[in-house]
């Protein structure tokens, strides 16, 4: 069963036929919200809003371990994490859809592993390619089937938040090779790898990152871009599920 983790702009997924709501506990605490088990295109899918109901959980306060553990407990076998991001390099402007292929992690003080308390030598995971190749390609194929413009590949820079970045920070990230900036990409991706759940990210660029454009960022502009683009995200996911 596929899971969709919804980010900013996708705290609800209209069109899902909810069959069951699972209020699960985990050894790591409560997930962000109850998991909705639903039908879409005649297939089962799980939905979990990353920031909780009403977008009430800040990026650095999300219980990523509980979210991934609960999804696996619910029977999920693969995950698409939807994310709103800022664009750093020139082709990643507002409203662009992207399937990233790399991550640079700038976060700190987050629980990054299931093995903190009971670590063994074989708990080291290979993270050379942080996103699952088959899931990524399936997303790209679904976009092509719907004639949706999408970019294959980008380096996602995961930052702590919840504040937006300074222009100097974005310049440093550009020098590091980042194309996108977001606050929730890690440790979600690495925890999914530890849980042996194939994971891919589907990102929508909500705004130019700080200092890239001469205009100052406003949440009203970001929300307007997300509202306009979230329909394409839903269409793409529906197509992806249909082609599964």
UniProtKB/TrEMBL annotation:
Substrate binds at residues 183, 207-209. Residues 2-242 form the Nucleoside phosphorylase domain. Gene3D superfamilies: Nucleoside phosphorylase domain. It holds the Pfam family PNP_UDP_1. GO terms for cellular component: cytosol. InterPro entries: MTAP, Nucleoside_phosphorylase_d, Nucleoside_phosphorylase_sf. Its EC number is 2.4.2.44. One of its GO terms (biological process) is L-methionine salvage from methylthioadenosine. The record marks 165, 219 as: Important for substrate specificity. It catalyses: S-methyl-5'-thioinosine + phosphate = 5-(methylsulfanyl)-alpha-D-ribose 1-phosphate + hypoxanthine. HAMAP family: MTAP. Belongs to the PNP/MTAP phosphorylase family. MTAP subfamily. Homotrimer. This is Probable S-methyl-5'-thioinosine phosphorylase. It comes from Methylophaga aminisulfidivorans. The lineage of its organism: Bacteria, Pseudomonadati, Pseudomonadota, Gammaproteobacteria, Thiotrichales.
């Amino acid at each position: 069963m596929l899971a969709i983790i919804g980010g900013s702009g996708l705290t609800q997924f209209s069109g899902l036929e909810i069959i069951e709501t699972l209020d699960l506990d985990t050894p790591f605490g409560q997930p962000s919200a109850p998991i909705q088990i639903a039908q879409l295109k005649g297939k089962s899918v799980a939905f979990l809003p990353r920031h909780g109901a009403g977008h009430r959980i800040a990026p650095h306060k999300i219980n990523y371990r509980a979210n991934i553990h609960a999804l696996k407990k619910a029977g999920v076998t693969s995950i698409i994490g939807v994310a709103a991001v800022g664009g750093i390099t020139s082709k990643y402007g507002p409203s662009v859809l992207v399937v990233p292929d790399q991550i640079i992690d700038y976060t700190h003080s987050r629980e990054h592993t299931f093995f903190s308390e009971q670590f063994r030598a074989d708990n080291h995971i290979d993270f050379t390619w942080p996103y699952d190749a088959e899931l990524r390609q399936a997303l790209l194929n679904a976009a092509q089937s719907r004639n949706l413009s999408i970019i294959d590949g980008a380096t996602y820079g995961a930052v702590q938040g919840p504040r937006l970045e300074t222009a100097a920070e974005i310049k440093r990230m550009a020098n590091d090779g980042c194309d996108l900036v977001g606050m929730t990409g890690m440790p979600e991706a690495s925890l999914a790898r530890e849980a042996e759940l194939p994971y891919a990210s589907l990102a929508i660029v909500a705004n130019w990152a700080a200092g890239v454009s001469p205009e100052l960022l406003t949440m009203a502009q970001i929300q307007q871009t997300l509202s306009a683009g979230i329909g394409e995200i839903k269409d793409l996911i529906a197509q992806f599920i249909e082609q599964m």
